[in-house]
Design goal:
Elements: E1 6-17, E2 20-31, E3 35-39, H1 46-53, E4 61-66, E5 69-70, H2 76-81, E6 84-86, H3 99-105, H4 115-120, H5 127-139, H6 143-162, H7 164-167, H8 180-193, E7 198-202, H9 210-225, E8 229-233, H10 237-243, E9 246-251, E10 254-259, H11 261-265, H12 268-275
Parallel strand pairs: 3-8, 3-9, 6-7, 7-8
Antiparallel strand pairs: 1-2, 1-4, 4-5, 9-10
The structure holds adenosine-5'-diphosphate.
GO cellular component, one term: plasma membrane
Keywords: ATP-binding, Nucleotide-binding, Transport
GO molecular function: ATP binding; ATP hydrolysis activity; L-isoleucine transmembrane transporter activity; L-phenylalanine transmembrane transporter activity; L-valine transmembrane transporter activity
Length: about 280
């Protein structure tokens, strides 16, 4: 038995932007099945931390490991294939694609037919060639491809069922016609499609009203109950307290407190960082 496996390990992570240190040497772990929230005042380094972990930006120093494998020098595609999925602060979906197609995009890191071609695509010059080859492969109706297409359709349906009243009826609608809350749900469904080891959520309820926030909280609690490991940045403390196993409090690029929600809430350093200025 013992403690659950470490899914994400971050050590000595640091990143500056032209002289300003956004993330100033942080260390933390996320274990299997845990929900860890990052809170802190604006500008404290929360989003930069998510961007460093997911490979959107590079660290100046420090290391990030996912399931024991270093990912801090890997590409976004490699990190996704290693089992990390994320959502963005403002909800990025492909407006011209349908809801189902958006979710299908999320399956890409795990699609078998695409794998060898993606390795080829590491060379930038060959990227377009790989794309052409992938389309060609998709057009050849081999048995393997047909089987994979059926599997993709089943996985998309399963993801949409998670958000049944909201997304399933809108399966074939273009994403740009959706409400803001439904675009954000679509983004979460897309991130979950690949069955990620770790789900990163950047303010999953930003811009949502109370009803929508409560509904997303219910969905995230259901995900947690299903064992999904999550790391999120969130401003709404009620949601953080209800959802998190542990909370990391950032201020000025550092983690100034970490622990279970009730403990962190009463920490004098946390109260000072939030209220003392
Ligand atoms: P938070 O998410 O906690 O609000 P951020 O991680 O977005 O904080 O930002 C931390 C600090 O780094 C802020 O001072 C911000 O202005 C700065 N910063 C973040 N990204 C960049 C960037 N791309 N270029 C310059 N400064 C940045």
């Amino acid at each position: 038995t013992g403690a659950p496996a470490v899914v994400l390990a971050v050590a000595g992570l640091r990143r500056s932007f032209s002289g300003l240190t956004a993330v100033d040497g942080i260390d933390f772990e996320v274990r299997a099945g845990e929900v860890v929230s990052v809170i802190g005042p604006n500008g404290s380094g929360k989003t930069t931390t998510l961007n460093l972990v997911s490979g959107v930006i590079r660290a100046d120093s420090g290391r990030v490991s996912l399931g024991g494998t270093r990912i801090d020098r890997s590409t976004v595609e490699e990190i996704a294939a290693a089992g990390l999925a994320r959502t963005f602060q403002n909800g990025r979906v492909f407006g011209g694609l349908t809801v189902a197609e958006n979710v299908e995009v999320g399956l890409y890191p795990t699609r078998r037919a695409a794998r060898p071609l993606r390795r080829l695509a590491r060379l930038p010059v060959l990227r377009w060639l790989a794309l052409v080859a992938e389309v060609a492969v998709a057009l050849v109706p081999t048995r393997a491809v047909r089987a994979e297409q059926a599997e993709v359709a089943a996985r998309v349906t399963a993801q949409l069922a998670r958000f049944h009243e909201r997304l399933a009826p809108r399966r074939d609608n273009q994403a740009h016609t959706l409400s803001y809350a439904n675009r954000r749900r679509t983004e979460i469904a897309r991130a979950l499609a690949s069955g990620p080891r770790l789900l990163l959520l950047d303010e999953p309820t930003a811009g949502m009203n109370q009803t929508e926030t409560a509904e997303v909280l219910d969905q995230l609690l259901a995900l947690k109950a299903a064992g999904q490991t999550m790391l999120l940045v969130e401003h709404k403390l009620d949601l953080v307290m209800a959802l998190s196993d542990r909370v990391l409090v950032m201020d000025n690029g550092r983690i100034i407190a970490a622990g279970p929600p009730h403990q962190v809430r009463n920490d004098p350093a946390v109260i000072e960082a939030y209220l003392g200025r």
